[in-house]
Amino acid sequence: MLDVTLIVLCAGNSTRFEHKTKKQWIRIDNIPLWLNVTQRLASFSNFAKIIVASHEDELNYMKNFTDDFTFVKGGETRQKSILNSLEFVTTKYVMISDVARACIPQNVIKNLLDQKNCADCIVPILNVTDTVIYETNTINRDEVKLIQTPQLSLTSTLKKALNTNTEFTDESSAIKAINGTIKYIQGSNESKKLTLGNELEELPCLKEPSNNFFTGIGFDIHAFEDNKEMFLGGVKLPYDYGFKAHSDGDVLIHSIIDALLGACGAGDIGEFFPDTDLKYKGIDSKLLLEHIVRFIYNVGYEIVNIDTTIIAQKPKINPFKHEIKNSLSALLNIEKQFINIKATTAEKMGFIGRAEGLAVQSIATLKYYNWKQK
Ligand SMILES: Nc1ccn([C@@H]2O[C@H](COP(=O)(O)OP(=O)(O)OP(=O)(O)O)[C@@H](O)[C@H]2O)c(=O)n1
Ligand SMILES: C[C@](O)(CO)[C@H](O)COP(=O)(O)O
Asked: First vs last Cα of the chain: how many Å apart?
């Protein structure tokens, strides 16, 4: 076993990527990019431990994919994500890579490891072959290098180097700033960083997503309560009662949230918005659905369609179906034709039949966001 921990940084926001999905979540066949990249790097050597720094909103979801890695909550910046991850590193050396460098070849890893005793930080670089200007002046391009990841650092030196308020864009710059030694090795064109959406075309190692569809069901039930407004699908209904609930009790939205989470394998509404958390007391469920829809897109899916059945003796749902559909269409960011709302009574049986509450069943279908066709 090597005395080296591998950290793969996957906690970014992909703001420059300009796709609906975050870059770490685009699917390569059925595998999210972060898993594809981490498994690929892991297969190149016998690392003592592998740490994946994940965005806090995605940490639990990432854990569903594998037990092979240690997942650590990232920070607001790349450097903060490294610092959080370093707390779990006990090896003498640490190799840090960006998920954004998706196609790193094996020989780069081998060359880094071969040089591990040569300096405090070993860094792959590329020469520049184009003419380079700084502001309007041509500069000597032989003195310009492009710095890549992964970089291999002495853990103790890196911890010392990052113990500062200065933000560095890579580990070698931080280590240089405390007069640590740097060894540059040949990088690779294949290690190109994926920053902008159109750069996907330049990464031939990435296979397009599978055409699979994913289905999830959701169910929710709430009792009526006096002196409350009733919301269904984000629409206020003129009824004598509202719902007894920790949130605004929008049972239709809650069942759709569970159907969406079911389809992408992300658990249920309570894991995202615990009803013990005061933050969600009386909350407008539209905000919860908006959060979940953003999550669904961020982690690599598109919504295909939603079908729901509202089981209610009262109130009458038919007069409001159109308005509810419009509301859901805006919240889900899909056209109305892909949303269906059905209503049925309980034939006066049981508590629904006695108009003490109502229940909703929903089904959602998702597909992967096809980044190749955008
Ligand atoms: N708070 C952050 C910010 C970035 N990263 C990671 O650092 C690497 C380099 O960052 P970049 O390519 O800039 O990714 P993003 O920060 O996601 O992109 P953007 O700046 O466009 O938002 C990526 O692997 C990214 O996931 C991280 O782990 N934590
Ligand atoms: C670390 C890095 O990949 C080296 O080139 C680069 O500095 C990361 O920059 P970003 O702005 O965080 O993508």
From this structure: 43
Q: Which atom of ligand 2 is nearest to the CA of 170?
A: 1
| Res. 225: pLDDT tops 90 | yes
pLDDT at 202: 85
Best substitution site from 16, 51, 78 to test ligand 1's pocket, by max atoms within 8 Å of Cβ? 78
Ligand 1 site, CB within 6 A: 9-17, 24, 53, 74-78, 81, 98-100, 193, 195
Ligand 2 atom closest to the Cα of residue 193 is: 3
Render pLDDT for 20-41 as a digit per residue (tens, 0 to 9). 999 999 999 999 999 999 999 9
From residue 165, give the alpha-carbon distance in Å to each of 14, 88, 153, 173: 23, 21, 20, 14
In which element (H, E) is residue 325 found?
helix 321-332
**Which two structure tokens, joined as six digits, stand for 333?**
């960011």
Domain ranges of the chain: 4-202, 213-373
Q: What is the 3-state secondary structure (H, E, C) of 39-57?
A: HHHHHHCCCCEEEEEECCC
Helix (H) or strand (E) holding 34: helix 33-44
Fold (CATH) for 213-373: 60s Ribosomal Protein L30; Chain: A; (3.30.1330)
Q: Output the CA torsion 298→299→303→304 (10° steps).
A: 140
Model pTM? 0.94
Q: Can you name the CATH fold of 4-202?
A: Spore Coat Polysaccharide Biosynthesis Protein SpsA; Chain A (3.90.550)
Kindly provide the ipTM of the predicted complex, given to two decimals.
0.94
Q: Is the pLDDT of residue 204 over 80?
A: no
124 prior amide bond cis, ω within 30 = no
